[in-house]
Amino acid sequence: MAIEVKVPALGESISSGILAGWQVKDGDIVEKDQVLYELETDKITSEGTAEAAGKISLKADEGDEVEIGQVIAEIDESAAGDSGSSEASEKETAEKDSEPAPEKETTDSPAVRRISEESGLDSAEVEGTGKGGRVTKGDMLSALEKKESAPEKSAPSKASAPAAKSEPKPTGDRPETRKKMSPLRRSIAQRLVSVQNESAILTTFNEVDMSAVMGLRKKYQDDFVKKHGIKLGFMSFFVKAVVEALKNVPGLNARLEGEELVQNHYYDIGVAVSTEKGLMVPVLRDCDQKSFSEIEQDLGDYAKKAREGKIQIDDLQGGVFSITNGGVFGSLLSTPIINPPQSGILGMHSIQQRPIAVDGQVVIRPMMYLAVSYDHRIVDGKEAVSFLVSIKNSIEDPARMLFGA
């Protein structure tokens, strides 16, 4: 009996994805719950597992765009546990591995074979960039472009070989690599353009003295780690400061829906996380009710899930306000773009020792520039400035967050 491997539903807003890679080969014997493939969508990257054990037959290639519900493979359960068949299959595979030509016929994707047949280009002569050195459709197309341009470059090189070697002239065929934009990167690009077109974004700036927060971290870090098993970072202070600022200036805790202004009465804060696939903004729920240790634990869990590519759709949905920290990459100042339909976002930056005036004296303090971008359709300039000043006050005097001052 053949079991169909279908692309699962991953959320109401997701209709398709890119088959980023197969973890098995066509004809492999797979076990139940074994990871078969990696699927990349415009929001997350997820893994698909086998529902049953058996011999797998692949129906889609790496790099293909596949629809939700599409059959991308079949598993023949009759081959499960058949050691004789497995041994025969392994022997057959070993024999094929010793013959280069037949191996190419069985491992090349249908798209690669089609290009090879139409162009006469042998895939064995092409350097593969796919998983395990596998030749992809893009590799074949790149090789064809180089092959077509080769005669044009070879003629002048014969006529003036020394000049070509000593000082090659720039041409239109400069080295470059092309690849299809990932769904996540495509979605980010569309959202950035969309929010710029549909919102009236302004940014206000301020700077904050980090001495008090850094002093608290230094004083209580060891005890905090011993008690909670996780370090006390800067982000939990800023999350709490944002919650206090949203309470003081509720205009930034709102969103537009058509012609209606929706006021939020909860405090779910999104924190931008940079991953290999692109920027994601997982949401910390009910931050007004959480302690510093609970916020740090949530941040640690999301960071781990991001590294492992296991962030889910539910982790990214909702959120009333976002925080992004470009300082971890060395950014001194930036103008962050709001995460729609939210009305604001806080940008943190790198901490630098700078001279400032305190009580008529010039002192050196660890300073950070802060930026709040806001949707001017919802938020007035006075509100935005007041919001940022509230954050500044909370960070420079953390006791305010404990007593709600």
Automatic annotation (TrEMBL):
Residues 2-76 form the Lipoyl-binding domain. GO terms for molecular function: dihydrolipoyllysine-residue succinyltransferase activity. Pathway: Amino-acid degradation; L-lysine degradation via saccharopine pathway; glutaryl-CoA from L-lysine: step 6/6. Its EC number is 2.3.1.61. Residues 88-107, 166-179 have a biased composition (Basic and acidic residues). It catalyses: N(6)-[(R)-dihydrolipoyl]-L-lysyl-[protein] + succinyl-CoA = N(6)-[(R)-S(8)-succinyldihydrolipoyl]-L-lysyl-[protein] + CoA. Signal peptide: none annotated. Its cofactor is (R)-lipoate. Binds 1 lipoyl cofactor covalently. Residues 107-144 form the Peripheral subunit-binding (PSBD) domain. Residues 75-185 are annotated as: Disordered. Residues 152-165 have a biased composition (Low complexity). Transmembrane segments: none annotated. InterPro entries: 2-oxoacid_dehydrogenase, 2-oxoacid_DH_actylTfrase, Biotin_lipoyl, CAT-like_dom_sf, E3-bd_dom_sf, PSBD, Single_hybrid_motif, SucB. One of its GO terms (biological process) is L-lysine catabolic process to acetyl-CoA via saccharopine. Belongs to the 2-oxoacid dehydrogenase family. E2 component of the 2-oxoglutarate dehydrogenase (OGDH) complex which catalyzes the second step in the conversion of 2-oxoglutarate to succinyl-CoA and CO(2). This is Dihydrolipoyllysine-residue succinyltransferase component of 2-oxoglutarate dehydrogenase complex. It comes from Puniceicoccus vermicola. The gene is odhB.
